[in-house]
From TrEMBL:
The active site is at residue 340. Keywords: Glycosidase, Hydrolase. Gene3D superfamilies: Glycosidases (3.20.20.80). It is an enzyme of class 3 (hydrolase). The keyword Acetylation does not apply. It holds the Pfam family Glyco_hydro_1. This is beta-glucosidase. Belongs to the glycosyl hydrolase 1 family. GO terms for molecular function: beta-glucosidase activity.
């Protein structure tokens, strides 16, 4: 049976600036990757050189039959020093947007995707009361320059990510399955202490006062992140009233077995429901999902030993996406954009199967009246996976990093055929 998606559905793939562009030298991640004794598997370097090869990459995306591209503008490039904006950087992103539009590809622009300017971290980072105004100033500058070319903007990628990172690290410290997802051997205490001492020295701060976006968050820090979103939204509305505004959240499909219902309810509140007041004035929500989390009487359960897993250690469970969309829609009456969904695997047949099963769930949601407006696969390119370096392959396109040659995978053409026909 053919499953038809609505006319005008957005089909595409996502990237993040630091993971693909290369030479993001003013960012906090660049500094931390390149320290002696770094816990990063390798530095990002020129990454996959997307800063130079963006036209080729967008052209490939369009050639597959996809009609949308979600990418991020890098704050550390736009404002490498506080209050000093780089015209060459803004001109570059104008060229990216124009390339999208010239190829009939709708750009969906993220204004902050994990990496931050080094000066912001030195000024208190994502725990500082001044960060919302600083972020709004940057967003306002970008939208004054480029807003007429941006139909959709995502202010902050995975604004709730610190909650999930803290849980992964806690599970690993307890002997669980979290190490693959963060790339940090948290049992190597001496190395961790030495590394964070070096991080502090590099930023000129005590280690406990280095507040990057990926770091542990206090309740105040979470509030700073979401207030940054609301202040940015206010600024963008004035400057670019036709741009539709949202943010994205990282959401597990949270399930429970008997006795785990209270833990699951707490997890949904912690990871999603508590943020609903910040989303009321948004135009849409970006939903990002990769797997499920099951709770029992004693808390989160490990991935079953007999379950298929991805390179990230996640359970292979594409049905999670549809379940998350259903839960979110019960609590938030907004259009939903799937801004990330995918798997890290070197077996592309499993990626194709994942796409099909995930999209069946999305289609069922749409058939039931849930307003899902697009699906952005993660990721367009095999890229730099933060602390894990280039070891995890999420992309529809493989990259030979010695030559930067692009090698589309069968999954790219498979998703493109679905997109071209709006049917599965």
């Amino acid at each position: 049976m053919t499953l038809r998606f609505p006319d005008g559905f957005y089909w595409g793939a996502s990237t993040a600036a630091h993971q693909v562009e290369g030479n993001n030298v003013h960012s906090d991640f660049w500094l931390m990757e390149n320290l002696e004794g770094s816990i990063y598997r390798e530095p990002s370097g020129i990454a996959v050189d997307h800063y130079r090869l963006f036209k080729e990459d967008i052209g490939l995306l369009a050639s597959f039959g996809l009609n949308s591209y979600r990418f991020s503008i890098e704050w550390a490039r736009i404002e490498p020093e506080e209050g000093k904006f780089d015209q060459a950087a803004i001109d570059h992103y104008r060229e990216v947007l124009l390339a999208c539009l010239s190829m009939n590809v709708t750009p969906i622009v993220t204004l902050h995707h994990f990496s931050s300017p080094q000066w912001l971290i030195r000024a208190g980072g994502w725990e500082s009361e001044d960060t919302p105004e600083r972020f709004a100033r940057y967003c306002a500058y970008v939208m004054r320059e480029l807003g007429e070319l941006i139909p959709y903007v995502c202010t902050i990628n995975e604004a709730n990510i610190s909650i999930g990172i803290a849980k992964i690290i806690k599970r690993h410290q307890a002997g669980g399955d979290g190490q693959a997802q963060v790339g940090i051997n948290t049992t190597d205490k001496s190395r961790m202490v030495a590394y964070f001492m070096e991080v502090g020295k590099a930023f000129g701060l005590p280690p406990q006062e280095v507040h990057s976006f990926h770091g542990a968050r206090t309740e105040k820090g979470l509030e700073v992140i979401f207030r940054s979103h609301t202040r940015a939204r206010e600024a963008i509305r004035v400057i670019s009233p036709n741009t539709r505004i949202g943010l994205s959240l990282s959401l597990y499909d949270i399930q429970s077995i008997p006795g785990g219902e209270e833990h699951a309810s707490h997890a949904w509140n912690e990871e999603f429901l508590q943020f609903l007041p910040y989303l009321e004035a948004d135009d849409y929500l970006g939903v990002q999902n990769y797997t499920r989390m099951v709770y029992g009487p004693d808390g989160a359960l490990p991935v079953p030993k007999d379950a298929e897993t991805t390179q990230m250690g996640n359970e292979y469970y594409p049905e999670a996406l549809g379940a998350v969309v259903r839960f979110v829609s019960k609590h938030l009456a907004k259009p939903l954009f799937i801004t990330e969904n995918g798997i890290a695997t070197d077996d592309d047949t499993r990626r194709i199967e994942f796409i099909d099963r995930a999209l069946r769930g999305v289609h069922a949601c749409i058939a039931d009246g849930i307003p899902v407006i697009g699906y952005m696969h993660w990721s367009l390119l095999d890229n730099f996976e933060w602390q894990l370096g280039f070891s995890k392959t999420f992309g529809l396109i493989a990259v030979d990093r010695a030559t930067q040659e692009r090698k589309p995978k069968p999954s790219a053409y498979h998703l493109g055929r679905i997109a071209s026909s709006d049917s599965l």
